[in-house]
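Hi all, posting the design record for the shared folder.

TITLE: backbone redesign
STEP: 1 of 1
STRUCTURE INPUT:
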């Protein structure tokens, strides 16, 4: 799963890299002389969690303050929704064995068709919250490269939609309220670039790869999620490059 996540990150950055040569040629490798103290980013974001076959789309917000020309501190928030179909393969081993044994018994007495598979369509609503540093490279006049640790918390609410009587019975036992909510921490890394069209407006492309283990009472393993985001960024406040000390 790590390799699949890294492949997705790589694909995102290859796409971004195709934009960099013309941007860098315009930049002429000149040191930036205008670094505004604050920035706000709003954009579209896409989450992919390969192990759960889950794709989510939504909104991404970042608010940051440049403490120095090379480091910023900021807050990061994402909210996304998506759909997938869960099978017993992702469940804890003990739960898998229990359900598979029950399925085999019901097949043997004709209560379930031969070769029955437990598949439950599910809606997911996810939010992420992060706070921390971002390290920035400003050797190009109109392009800033950046990298950061990705440390924060994820909140996810899932709503299963069983499509047959046995699946309905299983969901009623495992998720009696009809929805399940969990909070967990995550960790990983991310990065990207800003291209500045003006002193106050630019375009940001970025990606993150993070690890989390939500619903550890049901799910066997933790998961790697890739986040890709793109959108406008706005800079304002005093120019700290004019007085770096």
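Okay, here is what came back for every position:
SEQUENCE:
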């Amino acid at each position: 799963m790590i390799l699949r996540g890294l492949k997705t990150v790589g694909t995102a950055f290859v796409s971004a890299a195709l934009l960099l040569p013309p941007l860098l040629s315009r930049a002429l490798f000149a040191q930036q002389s205008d670094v505004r103290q604050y920035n706000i980013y709003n954009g579209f974001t896409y989450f992919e969690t390969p192990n759960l076959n889950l794709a989510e789309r939504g909104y991404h917000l970042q608010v940051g303050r440049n403490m120095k020309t090379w480091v910023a501190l900021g807050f990061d928030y994402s909210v996304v929704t998506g759909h997938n179909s869960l099978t017993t393969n992702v469940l804890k081993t003990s739960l898998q064995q229990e359900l598979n044994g029950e399925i085999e018994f019901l097949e043997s007495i004709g209560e379930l068709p031969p070769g029955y598979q437990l598949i439950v369509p599910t809606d997911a609503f996810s939010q992420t919250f992060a706070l921390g540093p971002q390290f920035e490279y400003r050797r190009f006049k109109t392009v800033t490269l950046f990298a950061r640790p990705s440390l924060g918390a994820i909140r996810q609410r899932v709503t299963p939609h069983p499509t047959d009587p046995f699946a309905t019975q299983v969901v009623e036992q495992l998720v009696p309220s009809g929805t399940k909510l969990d909070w967990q921490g995550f960790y990983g890394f991310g990065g990207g670039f800003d291209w500045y069209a003006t002193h106050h407006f630019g375009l940001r492309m970025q990606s993150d790869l993070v690890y989390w283990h939500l619903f550890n009472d049901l799910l066997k393993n933790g998961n790697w999620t890739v986040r890709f985001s793109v959108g406008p960024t706005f800079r304002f406040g005093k120019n700290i490059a004019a007085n770096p000390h």
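COMMENT: The first strand starts at residue 36 and ends at 49.
Let me know if anyone wants the other runs.
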